[in-house]
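Archive transcription. Copying these from loose printouts into the bound notebook so they stop getting lost. Printout 1 of 2:
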Amino acid sequence: MSFLAAVIVFAVTYVLLLIFSKYRAYIALASAIIFVIWAKLSFAELVDAIDFNVLMMIAGTMGIVVLFVDSKMPQLLADILVSKAPNAKWAIMLLALFAGIISAFVDNVATVLMVAPVALAICKKQNLSPVLPIIAIAVSSNLQGAATLVGDTTSILLGNYAGMDFLDFFWFLGKPGIFFVVEIGAVLSALTLLFIFRKEKQKLEVQEKTQVTDYFPSALMILVVVLLIAASFIPNKPSITNGIICMGLMVVGIIYNLIKTKKPDMMVKIFKEMDYFTLLLLAGLFVIIAGITKAGVIDKLAQLFMNIGGNSLFVMYTIIVFMSVLFSAFIDNIPYVATMLPVIQSIALMMGIAPYVLYFGLLIGATLGGNLTPIGASANITGIGILRKEGHDVKFKDFFKIGVPFTLTAVATGYIFIWIFYGM
């Protein structure tokens, strides 16, 4: 496959992914097949291209999250937080922070689906518009997805590509990891929310707390974190170790539920709610990237960045962060991050530097940039969908009231601290 042909197929694929978002997985798979045939990828190259560890981690976490949400533990925790809030302003902020904390370990969309109903109930009782509170929950959820290895698909992609384990997100190369960078941004963004909701001082009525139906899924969630941390200490472990942990615990959860209920209902629910769309999209993207890499496209893209940024690490870092913010405000960050990771690795090789400051800049820009617009992140789209079902039409200006100051605060914080820790 020639360089020009690879560029054309890749460009057409990306345009189609943008235009037909509902069919992204099928577009990626069709493009992957073209690259397999045209670029003559061997079976060994094909197997090597597909990152099974990433796919297994995502699939296993998805299943455990279904069990966790069904147990009603997240709703109980949200109820407890709200009961401690002195007024509506603090309740909204606490729910947004809680959504962020949950999102560091659970998929962003699932987090919004858990926490949004609590916010809706409060708003109905207090006769408040739920539009801004739900948007606050969505953008906070999207922010914290970058905090841990399992918080978001983009984090899993980065962790696997950079060879990072769970603990590396907390402490890396003797320095504070990206977790602390995100948390500093979360605290400053929370102060922004307090200012936005400063007039909402109504006292809250005490709500009846949700009853948890089963504590075992909560134990599974904790065990995922514990085992991923433990695995980080194992030298020369198999490349699919993290994936096996997540899939294995999902299977344990399914077996436990089958024994407890003697019904396959939960197993069916898990397999129904599994996000096969994202898994297929990623599998296709892995093959596409292998194809364009073989055709030399990745190296050419890296050279283009070098021509723009010169040999200045600071300029290159700045370009990657803010370009990622701009792109992720309008396009899905999964294909963007999957494409940019090998480009950044190539840039780092050309510059003769460790790639981590650029990797982290990519993650911050691509994850937080989605909060700039209503269509920039799945969590935002989900929150707006919930509001529409409740009869609330969300306008762009409503979203911008929270999205713009929240994003600018979080991105600026991340940009500065990552450079201080890893660039200087």
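Printout 2 of 2:
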Amino acid sequence: MPAGQQRIGLICPPDHEMFGPVAEHLRDRGFDVEFFEPGVELAPTRLDELDLLVNKKVRWTSIQALRYAHRADIAAWNDYTTSMVFLNRLSQLGALSAVGFSVPEVCSEKPDGEYVAKGFLDIRNDPTLNGEDDFYQPLLAFDGTDYKYYAVDDGEQIHTAVTRFGSKLFGEREFLGQGEVDAAVETSIRRLMRFTGARGLGVDVVEVEGEPYAIDVNPATSFRRTGLEDALVDSLAAATP
């Protein structure tokens, strides 16, 4: 690596449809970019070589790498503290509510009627319809469409986009097309990013009688089909010391 060249480490497959091209654009700007396989423990000696760590997969090994980076004063895009806020689904809901979102009710026992079962930790644990897990939420009366909002802070402004998917509660997730950004939802996401220090987030929203409910936050989302590639390049570059 040439002297003075900044190194970015991405916990992400190198052929990812968004972060693969993002890495190439960063290399064109003079950064050295290395991909790390998700789910594989990273040795401190490899992390010590980085100027910036970027996690694209919420796995225990990724959380451990972010924790090491935090202790070793290595910069991270969505750092250990930010990631831990969103790892616990109850703290997710608390953060979402604090910035103005409506969120589903949380029950320790199964509620009457249909419900969604969730684990406390949002790590390789998908919600299930009428299943068994750590806590339960009444199934919201929505039309089965998830509005997946994405936001990226490029260091100067926050860029947002939204895509529509069929909810995986009811089967295979199907891409339904682009969505229109709701100004109130966008405002709450901007608050959430300022509140948590996040540089990029995915927030899942459903509509109940015209009112948006936030149901999930992902600090290591894919940004697929968003058109936010340039914003991601600028954001990672701005986050590198």
